[in-house]
Design brief:
- The protein is α+β, with helices and mostly antiparallel strands and about 150 residues long.
- The protein has 2 domains: about 1-65, 3-Layer(aba) Sandwich (Ribosomal Protein L9, domain 1), CATH 3.40.5; about 75-150, Ribosomal Protein L9, domain 2 (Roll).
- Helix content is about 35%, strand content about 30%.
- The strands form 3 sheets. The chain has a 4-stranded mixed β-sheet with strand order 4-9-8-6.
- The longest helix has about 35 residues, at about 40-75.
Length: about 150
Protein backbone atom coordinates (compact mmCIF):
# COMPACT_ATOMS: atom_id res chain seq x y z
CA UNK A 1 0.00 0.00 0.00
CA UNK A 2 1.37 3.41 -0.94
CA UNK A 3 1.04 6.37 1.40
CA UNK A 4 2.20 9.99 1.47
CA UNK A 5 4.07 10.89 4.65
CA UNK A 6 2.82 14.06 6.32
CA UNK A 7 5.62 14.08 8.92
CA UNK A 8 9.23 12.97 8.95
CA UNK A 9 9.40 9.43 10.30
CA UNK A 10 12.72 7.78 11.14
CA UNK A 11 13.66 4.88 8.88
CA UNK A 12 10.70 5.60 6.55
CA UNK A 13 11.26 8.98 4.97
CA UNK A 14 10.78 12.72 5.07
CA UNK A 15 7.56 14.69 4.88
CA UNK A 16 5.98 14.45 1.44
CA UNK A 17 7.64 11.18 0.46
CA UNK A 18 5.50 8.56 -1.26
CA UNK A 19 6.46 5.20 0.22
CA UNK A 20 5.22 1.63 0.11
CA UNK A 21 4.35 0.06 3.47
CA UNK A 22 2.43 -2.99 4.58
CA UNK A 23 -1.34 -2.42 4.53
CA UNK A 24 -1.80 -3.14 8.25
CA UNK A 25 0.89 -0.63 9.24
CA UNK A 26 -0.78 2.03 7.10
CA UNK A 27 -4.37 1.31 8.22
CA UNK A 28 -3.66 0.73 11.90
CA UNK A 29 -0.91 3.25 12.64
CA UNK A 30 0.14 5.77 9.99
CA UNK A 31 -3.26 6.94 8.75
CA UNK A 32 -5.16 7.02 12.11
CA UNK A 33 -2.38 8.97 13.85
CA UNK A 34 -2.25 11.54 11.03
CA UNK A 35 1.29 10.72 10.00
CA UNK A 36 0.32 9.67 6.47
CA UNK A 37 -2.50 9.74 3.94
CA UNK A 38 -3.41 7.25 1.24
CA UNK A 39 -1.53 7.88 -2.02
CA UNK A 40 -4.22 8.25 -4.69
CA UNK A 41 -4.39 10.79 -7.54
CA UNK A 42 -6.51 13.31 -5.64
CA UNK A 43 -4.31 13.23 -2.52
CA UNK A 44 -1.10 13.44 -4.56
CA UNK A 45 -2.32 16.51 -6.48
CA UNK A 46 -3.54 18.29 -3.34
CA UNK A 47 -0.34 17.48 -1.48
CA UNK A 48 1.78 18.90 -4.32
CA UNK A 49 -0.06 22.21 -3.94
CA UNK A 50 0.51 22.12 -0.17
CA UNK A 51 4.17 21.21 -0.65
CA UNK A 52 4.87 24.53 -2.38
CA UNK A 53 3.38 26.42 0.56
CA UNK A 54 5.33 24.30 3.03
CA UNK A 55 8.59 25.00 1.19
CA UNK A 56 7.88 28.75 1.36
CA UNK A 57 7.22 28.44 5.09
CA UNK A 58 10.46 26.50 5.55
CA UNK A 59 12.50 29.13 3.71
CA UNK A 60 10.88 31.88 5.81
CA UNK A 61 11.69 29.99 9.02
CA UNK A 62 15.25 29.49 7.81
CA UNK A 63 15.71 33.21 7.06
CA UNK A 64 14.27 34.21 10.44
CA UNK A 65 16.56 31.72 12.19
CA UNK A 66 19.52 33.05 10.24
CA UNK A 67 18.81 36.63 11.31
CA UNK A 68 18.49 35.52 14.95
CA UNK A 69 21.82 33.69 14.68
CA UNK A 70 23.41 36.89 13.35
CA UNK A 71 22.21 38.75 16.46
CA UNK A 72 23.84 36.10 18.67
CA UNK A 73 27.00 36.30 16.57
CA UNK A 74 27.24 40.02 17.36
CA UNK A 75 27.07 39.29 21.10
CA UNK A 76 29.98 36.79 21.03
CA UNK A 77 29.98 36.30 24.81
CA UNK A 78 27.87 36.83 27.92
CA UNK A 79 28.94 37.04 31.56
CA UNK A 80 27.14 35.38 34.44
CA UNK A 81 27.90 36.10 38.09
CA UNK A 82 27.63 33.16 40.48
CA UNK A 83 28.62 32.23 44.01
CA UNK A 84 31.80 30.20 43.91
CA UNK A 85 33.34 27.85 46.46
CA UNK A 86 36.80 26.37 46.65
CA UNK A 87 38.66 25.43 43.48
CA UNK A 88 36.40 27.56 41.28
CA UNK A 89 33.39 25.32 41.70
CA UNK A 90 29.98 26.99 41.52
CA UNK A 91 27.33 26.51 44.21
CA UNK A 92 24.67 24.78 42.14
CA UNK A 93 25.11 25.16 38.40
CA UNK A 94 24.51 27.49 35.48
CA UNK A 95 21.96 26.03 33.10
CA UNK A 96 19.96 26.97 30.06
CA UNK A 97 17.52 29.13 32.03
CA UNK A 98 20.33 31.29 33.40
CA UNK A 99 21.78 31.76 29.92
CA UNK A 100 18.38 32.67 28.46
CA UNK A 101 17.84 35.19 31.26
CA UNK A 102 21.13 36.94 30.49
CA UNK A 103 20.48 36.99 26.74
CA UNK A 104 16.95 38.33 27.23
CA UNK A 105 18.45 41.25 29.17
CA UNK A 106 20.26 42.12 25.93
CA UNK A 107 16.92 42.23 24.09
CA UNK A 108 17.01 38.91 22.24
CA UNK A 109 14.26 36.36 22.75
CA UNK A 110 15.41 32.74 22.80
CA UNK A 111 13.56 29.50 23.39
CA UNK A 112 15.19 26.99 25.76
CA UNK A 113 15.07 24.33 23.04
CA UNK A 114 17.43 26.44 20.93
CA UNK A 115 20.34 26.34 23.41
CA UNK A 116 22.68 23.35 23.51
CA UNK A 117 25.18 22.74 26.28
CA UNK A 118 27.72 20.30 24.79
CA UNK A 119 29.18 19.30 28.17
CA UNK A 120 25.99 19.51 30.23
CA UNK A 121 25.30 22.17 32.84
CA UNK A 122 28.15 24.53 33.70
CA UNK A 123 29.65 23.91 37.15
CA UNK A 124 33.03 25.71 37.05
CA UNK A 125 34.14 29.30 36.60
CA UNK A 126 35.73 30.33 33.35
CA UNK A 127 34.76 30.38 29.70
CA UNK A 128 32.40 27.77 28.28
CA UNK A 129 31.28 27.33 24.68
CA UNK A 130 27.52 27.11 24.15
CA UNK A 131 25.62 26.39 20.92
CA UNK A 132 22.63 28.41 19.74
CA UNK A 133 20.63 26.33 17.25
CA UNK A 134 17.46 28.07 16.02
CA UNK A 135 17.19 25.75 13.00
CA UNK A 136 18.57 22.25 12.35
CA UNK A 137 20.91 23.65 9.67
CA UNK A 138 22.14 26.67 11.66
CA UNK A 139 24.62 26.48 14.55
CA UNK A 140 26.01 29.60 16.21
CA UNK A 141 28.59 29.29 18.96
CA UNK A 142 29.03 31.85 21.71
CA UNK A 143 30.93 32.01 24.98
CA UNK A 144 29.46 32.03 28.47
CA UNK A 145 31.92 33.49 30.95
CA UNK A 146 31.21 32.59 34.58
CA UNK A 147 32.70 34.95 37.17
CA UNK A 148 32.61 34.66 40.96
CA UNK A 149 30.30 36.99 42.84
CA UNK A 150 32.14 38.82 45.63
Amino acid sequence: MEVILLLKINKLGNSGAIIRVKPGYARNFLIPTGKAILANKINIESFEAQRIELEKEDTNKFLIAQSRAEKIKKIKSITILSKVGKEGKIFGSVGIRNIIKEISLLGIKINKKEIRLPNGVLRHTGEHTVVFQPHPKIHQYFIVNIISKK
